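Protocol step 6 of 9: fold each sequence in the batch and record its C-alpha cells directly after the sequence line. For illustration, a two-sequence batch is reproduced in full.

Sequence one:
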Amino acid sequence: MKISPNTQVTLCGVAAGLLLAMSAHAQDALPIAELGAGMARIEAEVAHTAEARITGLMNRVAMPLHRGMVFVFPEERAHCMWMKNTLIPLSVAFLDAEGRVLNIEDMQPQTTENHCAAGPARFALEMNLGWFAERGVRPGDRLRGIDKLPAPQ
C-alpha cells in the first residue's frame, strides 16, 4: 500500500500530537503540593525524582498564575538552573532546608545561562516571571508547606 505525501504529513502531525499529549500526561502525573508565600497560595508540581528534576517545565507553553514547580534536591548545595527547551519566562526562588528564600533569579526562555543558589539550597521553586516580586517575596522570607514535601528519589 502506498501512502500519499499529504497522508504522510497528516500521519506525522497526528503522531507528534500524540507524543505531546503523552508528555503532557506524564507531567500531569507529578504530585501537587500546596505551598504559601505571604498571603499567596501556590499549587506546585513536585519534581522529587531525578527524571522530573531534569525535565522540569521544559516544552510548556503556559502556566496558570498560581501554579509552579518545586524541585526537591537530594542534597543541600548551590544548585543551578537553566532554561534550555523551556518556552516560558520564569523566576526561581532557591530555598534552604527550612523553606527560607536564599535568592530569586529571573530566567529568560530557551537560554543556557546558569542561575545559581546564593548558598546551600535544598529546594528551588519556579513560578511565572515576576511572580515573587509582584507579591513582595524577598530573600529571608520563609515559604509554608515545604515540610510536607516528599523526600527526593
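Sequence two, same batch, same settings:
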Amino acid sequence: MDINLKERVLTLIPEAQLEDNKQFVCFVIPSEKFHSLVETLKNSEDTAMDFLFCLTGVDLGKDLMVVYHLSSTKLGHQIVLKVKTDDRENPSFDTISDLYKSADFYEREVYDMFGVRFNNHPDMRRIFLDENWEGFPCRKDYTDEINIIEL
C-alpha cells in the first residue's frame, strides 16, 4: 500500500509544520495533538507505524524539543515528528509509552537529561542520575562547578 505521509499528516493535523529534510518526512506537531496523531499513525493500516526507533531531547536555547523517529516495519516508511515548548520551567508533553514500550526508557532519559516531563508516564523518575541530582546536564544553561572543566 503506497501512501503519501505528508498528505496523511496534514489531513489529520492541518496546522502541522512540514520541515525540509532530505532523509525523512519531518513535521513539528502542536503538543496537544501529538498523542492522538501518533496513535492514529500506529493503528491505521495505511501507515502502521509500529516501531519507535529513536526519541531524543534537544535544547534549542529558547525552546526545548523532543524528536521522535517512527517506522513501519510492515510498509517500510519512516517519519520524524517533533514537539516543542518554550516553557523551560515546567516543560511537559504527553507520554507515548502507552503506545510504544520503548518510549518508557527513552522518555525517562529525556527527563533525566533535559527536565522534560511526560504526562501519564508510568514511572517518571531519573534513569541515570541520582534522584537528588540538581539540574539537567544536557541543557545549554546547565552549570556544574565541580564536575565540568571549562577550558
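Proceed to step 7 once all outputs are recorded. Observation for sequence two: The helical segments are 5-12, 31-43, 103-114.
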